[in-house]
Protein: dolichyl-phosphate-mannose--protein mannosyltransferase
Amino acid sequence: MLAKETGLTALLFNLVFDIYRSWSSLTRSPSKFRWRHEGLWSRLSKGLIVLIMLAIARLALLQGSLPAFSPQDNPPAFHPSFIVRLMTFCYLAAFNWWLLLCPWTLSHDWQMGSIPLITSGWDPRNLITGAALVALMALSYRCLMDLELQRHTPLVVGLMLLVIPYLPASNLLVTVGFVVAERVLYIPSVGSVLLTVYGVQILCHRGGRWLAIGLAVLVAAGAARTFDRNRDWRTRETLLRADLAVLPHNAKLHYNFANFLKDIEQQENAIKHYKEALKLWPSYASAHNNLGTLVLASGRAEHHFLQALKYNKDHVNAHYNLAKLYR
Structure:
């Protein structure tokens, strides 16, 4: 729980679920509210105290301040327009939900403009955001209508697990060092599965052979995608090649692949990918530095070392390489 902020939301989920389970009795006996529900308030107060203590401990581990991130880590967070930030972050929430429903576009690194900013209200991706918002509102409304009778508990639990653990990673409350990270979707994936299975269960009551066939196809497709993605993770090279095929405009992936090619002494290909990384992200200091080490013979090394220091004056390797060049 102290390692990742999403761990703290497990306690918050328990508190909210406790209120949900006690809601009907709370509203039915307002006159006996105090003495009949002392156990509930005791649990809530203890849970809140533990939650606050863990949050304080987490801040203490961070030396009392939130981590500092750069535009490379989270480009939307540094855009000057609030509207652009809001539209992009809302779309990212919808995109993460879509990853849970259809995990086709996967990558181990989503930095450096992997998802372009939404700078206009006419961007078609806003339709995806709107559709996700409508679906979320519909599910929330159904949950609120279920507070008294509580006939659809799996729906409520699924929605809470989908939303609450994702909040710290949404960029809507605090800035985090990524735009998309599959690792923060572990707990929300449980909620997504609950919602999906519960929806299928309701549809199954209506019968239909086509529904069973569609469900079988969906399960088979998910299994095939899992098998295919596991093969991507076999080696460093297979992972980088697979992710570059999905996100060819990700400068960080080109940089990492260039590092791999440099390690196996494919210098020409490494230079090509370093240049592609700089084309996509011109202020990439580390790419300038590493490219400089490969173009010493051409006389362009000094330019790239100086560019690296221009964009990051504290880049130790660039200082060292430039000093070696001047020696």
The chain has a mean pLDDT of 85.
